[in-house]
Request: fold
Amino acid sequence: MPDTLLERHAEALRLFGERVHAVADDQWDAPTPCTEWTVRDLVNHVTGEQLWIPPMVTDGRTVEEIGDVFSGDVLGDDPYAAWDRAATAAHAAFVAPGALDRTVTLSYGPVRGSAYCSELTVDCILHTWDLSRAIGAVDRLPEDLVEFSLKAVTPHADALAASGMFAPPLDVPAGADAQTRLLALVGRQG
Reply:
């Protein structure tokens, strides 16, 4: 399981990174399926999430200790390089010996490093779809990432919707494929 989780994490980062590098100069202000975010806002959000990983996983710092260091614009003048640096450091933190077994203190309480890695992997996968839609890229996600996300999200779909982090689940047509089911679970129309 740890190797598979780390493989999915690396694959999700790589795929999101490909989409980031496909953003044209005139697309940074384009809308995304996350209605409150532009492309830049979306990339900033996912990049910011990656920046939290090293201090929390490697250094054992809490949300309170880190404070607002990663608030606001983390992309600067070169969003492509900012993403690359953040993704590389995030993955390095998770692959370090013992990282997935450590306790990480998130805003909602302590979790194992593996749970944190899984959560951020799914978030990266879902936001890859959002970014793909926003920039007109192919929005078909790799089957292994979709299956991974479905397994991770399905038991928590109601809680995610109640948290306000995702829209309420949508009805799924009979015979829908895995990606359509995944997107519907998090309130996205595929």
